[in-house]
Amino acid sequence: MSDEFGPTFITVTDEDGNEIALEFIDALEYNGQMYQAFFPAETEDNEDDPDNGLVILKVIHEDGEDLLSTLDSDEELEAVYDLFMENLFQEDSE
Question: Beta partners for 66?
Fold first, then answer.
């Protein structure tokens, strides 16, 4: 993904109704499923939040729309997280 036009931000709503701004980092396919990685957008309120790490969401196709969903299992999360980390560190070394 090119940063030629700047970063891409989205806003998602969690299960408690809180809106969270996320910055798109990367996307990849794993076992026929698309995943997207995000970092929480920087705000003064959450700089020291321990949950401020990489957010990985699954792309679900429903009624002709792409929706974002949490992953189904810890095993799925760990496998996809490892792939994103490989990609991110590979890009940094280039």
Answer: 61
* Cα 22 from Cα 12, distance rounded (Å): 8
According to DSSP, residue 17 is labeled S
Backbone angles phi, psi at 68, to 5 degrees: -105, 140
What is the rounded distance in angstroms from the CA atom of residue 39 to the CA atom of residue 47?
12
Region of poorest pLDDT, from 3-7, 12-16, 65-69, 70-74 = 3-7
**Is the per-residue pLDDT at 1 higher than 50?**
no
**pTM exceeding the 0.85 threshold for the entire prediction:** no
- pLDDT tens digit sequence for 18-28: 999 999 999 99
Tokens of 93: 């070394």
Spatial separation of the C-alpha atoms in residues 45 and 48, rounded to whole Å: 8
Beta strands across the sheet bearing 9-13 = 9-13, 19-30, 33-40, 55-62, 65-69
